[in-house]
Design brief:
- By secondary structure, the chain is mainly β.
- The protein has two domains: 70 residues, no CATH class; 53 residues, no CATH class.
- It is 0% helix and 43% strand.
- It has a five-stranded mixed beta barrel. The chain has a five-stranded antiparallel sheet with strand order 7-11-10-8-9, with no helix packed on it.
- The two termini are 28 Å apart.
Length: 132
């Protein structure tokens, strides 16, 4: 499956100005309609977010059937970093030693930098979204 991540710069004559990040590289775990808020539902999968979900990562740009690729707006972008320790998809991340990312520890909510999109083991590459 091809992965696309791109920056779109809007011109001043558009209603909304600024930078957007459009990402295609995740799979729908359920039927998704355009404009739904999306949350991580498993490793590399997203679906419509539940009430007060802590795993929200973006907004659907278009609809997708369950099992199909998803195109979403990811406000903080989608990044890849090395995991420090095991990481489970949907968990909040903090910075780890030497520029890595790690699963949030107890009482470190003010240090959250993003949400994991994949489940990986120590030393593997994990995709994650920046928490704004």
């Amino acid at each position: 499956m091809p992965v696309a991540s791109a920056w779109i710069v809007r011109h001043a004559n558009h209603l909304h100005e600024g930078v957007e990040n459009v990402y295609s590289g995740l799979t729908a775990s359920a039927t998704i309609t355009a404009d739904q808020v999306l949350a991580v539902t498993g490793s590399g999968t997203v679906g419509p977010a539940g009430a007060a979900s802590a795993a929200v990562v973006g907004i659907a740009i278009s609809g997708a059937a369950s099992g199909a690729p998803v195109t979403m707006f990811a406000p903080g972008g989608v990044w890849s970093s090395t995991a420090s320790g095991g990481i489970t998809a949907g968990t909040k991340l903090v910075s780890g030693a030497a520029g890595t990312v790690a699963t949030i520890g107890a009482n470190t909510f003010e240090k959250i930098i993003g949400t994991a999109l994949d489940t990986v083991s120590n030393g593997q590459t994990v995709r994650w979204t920046v928490t704004l």
